Amino acid sequence: MSQEVERFVFLNPPGILEMVLISLLVIIVLYSAIKSTRRLTSLKRRITLISLHLASFSLIVFILLNPALRVENYREEKPTLALVVDHSWSMNLGGDEEGISRIQSVRNFFKKYETFFSELEKHFFVSCYVFDESLRPVSSDFINISKPNGKNTNIDKVIKELEEKHDLGEIDSVILFSDGADNNRALENNEELSKNIGFPIDTVALSLDEKVRDVWIDSLKASQVAFLRYPLSVDVVVKSFGFKGLSIPITLKEGDNLVSIEEISIASTSGEGKATFELQPTSVGRKIYTASIPVVSGDVVGENNQKSFVVDVIINKIRVLHIAGSPSWDVKFLRRALKRNPSVDLVSFFILREATDLVFASQNELSLIPFPVDEIFGEELGTFDVVIFQNFDFRPYGIYGYHLGKLRDYVVEEGGAFLMIGGDKSFDSGNYERTPVSEILPVELDYTSGTVERSFNKKGFHAELTKVGAHHPIMQIIPNEKENEDNWNNMPPLDGINEVEGLKPNAIPLLSTPEGEPILVLNQAKLGKVASFLSDSSWQWSFVRVGEGEVSPYYDKLWNRLLLWLIGDPELKDLRVKTDKPSYNLGEKSKVDIRILNRDNADQEIKSSVTLPSGKQVELNLEKISADEISSEIPIEEYGIYKINVATQETPQIQTNSNKDETVFLVEPPENEIRGPTTNADLLKTIAQKTGGRFITVKDNPDKLGTDFSPKRTIIGYNTVQIWDKPWFFILLVALFSSEWILRRRWGLR
Fold first, then answer.
1. CATH code for the domain in which residue 148 is found
2. What is the mean pLDDT of residues 291-295?
């Protein structure tokens, strides 16, 4: 349907510069007219001449602007209406005390007022959009079935995108559905909004702000890196909206294990409360802790009542308890090597004389301090990372099976580490064969009573790398494998070896004699690690390459790397698994990197799985990148903690911590989208007011929007008739000039 409308227009409309020039000319013409009539005494005559002068000038300007009559032809058609729905993550949260999610409230609104929206489609071309950080066209079905997952909300940017579409003729009006939680807060004081938007935006809020009550964990501050056995402080801030004077417990867990519970009081004035936790990690690796508060009655948003954080626990100081049976070169050199390592916190006990030694002085004169048996094997034992017995006979010093049982439990149950170094008071020579310590040693002892002469052989021998030892990270003193093996083969011979019955199942020999007798042996003892060095002459290796500027390079590196293996340092694992990030967003993919550090495992099948937050375990598809590197990807489809396990394909009986590894990563909703009530109805009101739209909530009838159902008019053509060149314009101009000229002469002016 078309219509005709006649309008008066200027074909040469003045611009800003022209308007300024015309204004200046008007002032000049007015000034000249006033000045030229100043001799007239009659005010009436002066006004008449000034008016004729201005009228003549105005008529000339009017003619120059090219006046015309335009007859415009219009076509009436449906305008375009955009239904824009917030698709950020906060739309999954509860909107009010009824507990219905915000996106479901929008869907229910569409369904309840289906008649209204059907009427819209009769009078408008209706298009649907969703937004988070930007605008995206979708179908109405998408809004009804898709779960919002945007990690950020930027209403300011979305309005600018709508404005661009309006300028292109794609949008005429908008109905915006949102909780108003703009993370960027760019619109809160935007006074330019109404000047820039040329179309109305009606806004529909999910609820009024005063109807949303919430208690949430607002912030959690903790270092991303912590040191083994060192305190880690965690500061938690809890805030509330709509609650006053609330006291609630806050719980901190590592996985499913409870760490601590604190009581937190939320001030009625500020609506804020604080709690501080102190952790002390007991193992290295990545840890995920979760702070949580209960959902109290009336708390609309329960999803922000817990918050997790990732901590990578590394080694700052290795706390070592070193007990030596008697002074010797081996004891002296090892102690020096440990003290040279800045990462080692060393506590040493030396037995300078035994009770059977012949001395000519009283006990009081010779005793330094009593051997603190109960203290060492009591509460203090758990404060050490590694315990070393070096050529130590426990029997004369009040150490009994009870104490050695505590040492065994420290390794097996608490994940501690134990190293026994040889000599004539170690292993069978120290009568350990029937003690709890023999249960955790990686070598088999002789359970028949023997003598020192039979169990400790003072013969000389050359230490050789075993097949496993050639590739084991402990023995990689030199990075180049071939050069490293050659140097080990050329190490000086040792003298004195503890003879044992053999190796425990799963024990790993790294060094042996040419006859196959074990020298350095490793093993796993449930949660802990153990090692045995069956000689008391390794100090002779401290002189190798000393003349090249380093202090005992081979000797120090061997013992330091052995310590790192004992405490489970990831760099010394046979297998190691990492992810490219500690935390992810929904929809991303976690990139998994598996490194094979022990080349002996390179030909073995590697098995890896991930335990999803739901508890379901899924095998990973592994891709071999090289002989010692494997990769995989994990699609992120759930929120929570993911746990990755990797191991060589072996029977459980021979599985050890060396050939398996694990790591975790975290997936949580976007922080900005769940921090606080995440509603801002006032912002939506402001947008509606400044753009000429209206504001309602989903509880209101959409008729309150006052939607204009009038058709859109589009100009399809026009006809212009110029009027400045008509004869009467010329006659009028001549009449004005003539009248002024005649009157000026009659009244005595030029």
1. 3.40.50.410
2. 93
